[in-house]
């Protein structure tokens, strides 16, 4: 019986090999052609390897050789043997694109270009061979493409130009210099208006790279479609050094975006580090400018920043605590939306400085029983109730969810997973009780100060 089973398996394997020998051989040929010398490749073809087979990823031997083979003679061999040199894979990539993007030998690209001069052809994403060479830091390939007529200012589907791609990919300076020397527009913009300089800032390139762009006449105050200049990107992408450099070189600090907000709004909204605020104001950023909706810098900080030092610094720089937006909303109204500053010294200071004082309502204490019950029934719900969902509640939710999923998918170890889940659930309930107690201590202190404030200023 055992012999019959073994023979059956043997005949199945043999039948598979007989019915599909070329595919197995051809698949190995694609791997072989990536590094094969011309003689080895010729032998494989002589033995029946198909030069136009396509693997499951849509790659042909010619594409594979263009991407990785270091020998131009292999490219010539495949071409002589009838390889389809204009074939495009499922993403619209040609052999020219593969050679430009991945091959470390520029002579391969040159060989491919002998019969394919579609240098500005785009793949499905709209990228040309120049984009792909720039993305992969292939300076030699960039030079060949430009020399034979590739357009350095064609954008992809998002309007991104090869020079922008080079900055995004942190390609070396020589590659960037080559693109600019061959006519890449240093003031080009993508479909959203983002500039080359803004791309360099977002990619956190060395200051020398930013300086090089300025020396090549990049406009430091060129705006995108939302009115943002390069300094806005320096703030949003956490590049303090770039911000300092751009301000030193003439970036206008009080330009407004499409909402009427200056870069100072972005700084106080995003950064707890006072360095951004101090740097911008040292270059003349106005602390009392208001957006088109009437929102002030202080309002933006009061709503979004969890560092009370930012509010203190703005007040020290004469930010107006009595400002109103277009709907009559006060600074302290924005402050009430910021849980992080509730009950802090600066919270009470802003309320004292507000001329239109209103009663501050006390907060109801949290029920420990409810916190425990919610934690028991719904993962992380108790922590949400006690205002501690992030990060503790999120971690309990992820942990318990993973354990339940594992228990469902692994029946053999289900009891073990459920036991761990039960232990974690106990810890969650205990921790939610602890969070409720800590929050209630804060609430008691807050309520006491609220009552004192109401008695002092409203009675």
TrEMBL record:
Ranges occupied by ANK repeats: 57-90, 125-157, 158-191, 192-225, 226-258, 293-326
A UniProt-annotated Pfam family: Ank_2
Keywords: ANK repeat, Coiled coil, Repeat
Coiled coil spans: 429-456
InterPro entries associated with the record: Ankyrin-SOCS_Box, Ankyrin_rpt, Ankyrin_rpt-contain_sf
Entry keyword annotation includes Repeat: yes
One GO biological process term: positive regulation of transcription by RNA polymerase II
A single MF term (Gene Ontology): transcription cis-regulatory region binding
Official protein name in the record: Uncharacterized protein
Annotated source species: Halanaerobium hydrogeniformans (Halanaerobium sp. (strain sapolanicus))
């Amino acid at each position: 019986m055992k012999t019959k089973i073994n023979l059956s398996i043997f005949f199945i394997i043999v039948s598979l090999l007989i019915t599909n020998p070329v595919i197995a051989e051809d698949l190995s040929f694609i791997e072989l052609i990536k590094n094969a010398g011309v003689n080895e490749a010729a032998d494989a073809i002589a033995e029946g390897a198909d030069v136009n087979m396509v693997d499951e990823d849509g790659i042909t031997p010619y594409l594979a050789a263009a991407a990785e083979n270091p020998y131009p003679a292999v490219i010539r061999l495949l071409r002589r043997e009838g390889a389809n040199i204009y074939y495009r894979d499922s993403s619209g990539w040609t052999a020219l694109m593969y050679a430009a993007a991945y091959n470390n030998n520029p002579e391969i690209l040159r060989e491919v270009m002998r019969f394919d001069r579609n240098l500005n052809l785009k793949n499905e994403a709209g990228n040309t061979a120049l984009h792909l060479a720039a993305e992969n830091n292939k300076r030699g390939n960039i030079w060949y493409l430009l020399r034979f007529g590739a357009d350095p200012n064609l954008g992809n589907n998002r309007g991104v130009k090869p020079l922008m791609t080079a900055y995004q990919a942190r390609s070396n300076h020589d590659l960037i210099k080559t693109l600019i020397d061959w006519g890449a527009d240093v003031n080009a913009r993508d479909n959203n208006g983002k500039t080359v300089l803004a791309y360099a800032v977002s990619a956190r390139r060395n200051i020398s790279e930013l300086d090089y762009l300025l020396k090549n006449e990049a406009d430091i105050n060129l705006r995108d479609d939302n009115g943002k200049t390069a300094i806005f990107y320096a703030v949003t992408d956490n590049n303090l050094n770039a911000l300092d450099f751009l301000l030193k070189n003439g970036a206008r600090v009080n330009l407004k975006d499409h909402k009427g907000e200056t870069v100072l709004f972005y700084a106080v909204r995003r950064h707890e580090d006072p360095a951004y605020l101090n740097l911008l104001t040292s270059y003349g950023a106005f602390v009392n400018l208001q957006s088109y909706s009437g929102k002030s810098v202080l309002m933006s900080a009061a709503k979004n920043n969890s560092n009370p030092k930012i509010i203190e610094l703005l007040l020290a720089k004469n930010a107006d605590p009595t400002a109103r937006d277009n709907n009559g909303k006060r600074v302290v109204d924005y402050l009430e939306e910021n849980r992080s500053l509730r009950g802090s010294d600066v919270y009470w200071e802003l309320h004292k400085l507000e001329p239109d004082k209103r009663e501050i309502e006390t907060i109801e204490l949290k029920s420990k029983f409810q916190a425990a019950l919610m934690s028991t029934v719904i993962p992380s719900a108790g922590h949400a109730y006690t205002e501690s969902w992030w990060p503790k509640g999120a971690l309990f939710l992820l942990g318990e969810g993973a354990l339940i999923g594992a228990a469902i998918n692994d029946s053999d170890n289900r009891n073990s997973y459920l036991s761990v889940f039960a232990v974690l659930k106990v810890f969650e309930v205990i921790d939610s009780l602890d969070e409720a107690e800590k929050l209630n201590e804060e609430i008691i202190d807050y309520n006491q100060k609220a009552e004192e404030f109401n008695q002092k200023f409203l009675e």
